Amino acid sequence: MFVHKIDEELELKLPQKHDAEALFRLTDQSRSHLKEWLPWLDFTTKEEDTKNFIAGSNKLYADNQGLNALIFFKGELAGVAGYNQLDWTNKTAKVGYWLGVGFQGHGIMTRTAQALTQYAFEELNMNRVEIRAAAGNKKSRAIPERLGYTYEGQIRQAEWLYDHYVDHVMYGMLSDEWKNR
Ligand SMILES: CC(C)(COP(=O)(O)OP(=O)(O)OC[C@H]1O[C@@H](n2cnc3c(N)ncnc32)[C@H](O)[C@@H]1OP(=O)(O)O)[C@@H](O)C(=O)NCCC(=O)NCCS
């Protein structure tokens, strides 16, 4: 069971079956906000879909291939963040995240992404952490930029979002850069 306290306000936890109701509620309340940049909202329309996500997240973690953690802000479920992929061959962790509507603007994700970056280097011994975002997703891009990641370039038409493609931008942090920042 993964539990990681970030600071006095923030904690990450691997989702459990009993989290399904709260996680589905947050997703459903945040649907139009999340749909602007995330591709899976039309596949999450009932609590059963969230239960499947939680089961998949537990398997991903058990297989050591990634981590989807719930973010608790002052004890309240605020969003999800983690490693979409842990690439052990290339020692690269790929960070992903979202916040529920109403939880933006508190620095929750900047602190969470910082903790995930630190954990990837110091606990998982990764060499590289990547954050990818749609080119137009200014709030998402601001997170690696605040944390001192390097902008590495743009990937054209990298993702299909319901009815159009979006370009992605790639940010990277290397282990040596993290140590010497
Ligand atoms: C991307 C997303 C997580 C960013 O949320 P966010 O609230 O802007 O990011 P943070 O939680 O780090 O908060 C940063 C904001 O809080 C402010 N802030 C307050 N306290 C802060 C602190 N201690 N540290 C950093 N920022 C702080 C910052 O000034 C910033 O405000 P601004 O946007 O007015 O400049 C959110 O917009 C989201 O979930 N979007 C939809 C899903 C999505 O796009 N996911 C990413 C796909 S790649």
Main attributes?
181 residues, globular, binds coenzyme A, 35% strand, Aminopeptidase, Acyl_CoA_acyltransferase, 8-stranded mixed beta sheet, alpha+beta, GCN5 family acetyltransferase, Ribosomal_N-acetyltransferase, GNAT_dom
Strands, helices and their partners?
Layout lengths: L2 E3 L4 E4 L6 H10 L1 H5 L11 H16 L4 E7 L2 E12 L4 E8 L8 H15 L5 E7 L3 H9 L3 E12 L2 E11 H5 L2
Parallel strand pairs: 5-6
Antiparallel strand pairs: 1-2, 2-3, 3-4, 4-5, 6-8, 7-8
The site of coenzyme A has 18 residues, from strand 5, helix 4 and helix 5.
Quickly describe the structure.
The protein has 181 residues and is an alpha+beta fold.
Detailed description of the structure:
This protein is of the alpha+beta class and 181 residues long. The protein has one domain (3-179): Aminopeptidase, CATH 3.40.630.30. Helix content is 33%, strand content 35%. The chain has helices spanning 20-29, 31-35, 47-62, 108-122, 138-146, 175-179; strands at residues 3-5, 10-13, 67-73, 76-87, 92-99, 128-134, 150-161, 164-174. It has an 8-stranded mixed β-sheet, with helices on both faces. Strand 4 and strand 5 (92-99) form a beta hairpin. Helix 1 (20-29) packs across helix 3 (47-62). The longest helix is centred in the first third of the chain and has 16 residues, at 47-62. The structure holds coenzyme A. Residues 34, 37-38, 97-99, 104-110, 133, 137, 139-140, 143 line the site of coenzyme A. This is GCN5 family acetyltransferase. GO terms for molecular function: protein N-terminal-serine acetyltransferase activity; protein-N-terminal-alanine acetyltransferase activity. Pfam families: Acetyltransf_3.
